[in-house]
Write a structure and sequence with these properties.
The protein is an alpha+beta fold and 132 residues long. It is 43% helix and 27% strand. The chain has a four-stranded antiparallel β-sheet.
Length: 132
């Protein structure tokens, strides 16, 4: 599906206000204790109004999770929420689409890191990212 200019601008603004772009590296141990480098690449948007979450899903794909209701500090139950999430390669495609329209410095930096990670990996490995 081709995404038009207005939808890219809207998705970028919504991601700036409500979303989270995560890119970080960490050491992770497997079940037998071997430690290896792991790269976390994820974009998330969570909200109680389902229409924008489902529109992002329609534009970019990904996964929608239903979040459990939680007890607030006042002792009342919070509204139910949905969370749209894309990982790795789909997150790269989202970043390529919305980067020109992002405004917040931290999200711009994270989106640039994700794009750099995949662009450099594709040049080295002819389209497949192998290792870290």
């Amino acid at each position: 599906m081709k995404i038009n200019y207005g939808d890219k601008r809207w998705a970028s603004a919504f991601l700036d206000g409500e979303g989270c772009i995560k890119y970080y590296r960490r050491l992770k141990a497997n079940r037998v204790g071997k430690v290896y480098k792991s790269t976390i690449i994820r974009i998330e948007v969570c909200g109680t109004d389902y229409a924008p979450i489902r529109f992002l899903y329609k534009l970019f794909g990904g996964v929608i999770y239903k979040r459990k209701r939680r007890l607030t500090a006042k002792g009342t139950w919070a509204k139910p929420q949905e969370m749209w999430t894309v990982y790795h390669r789909k997150a790269y495609k989202v970043c390529k689409a919305v980067l020109p329209y992002l405004l917040t410095k931290q999200r711009i930096k994270s989106a640039q890191q994700i794009i750099k990670y995949y662009d450099e990996g594709m040049n080295i490995n002819r389209g497949r990212r192998i290792g870290v």
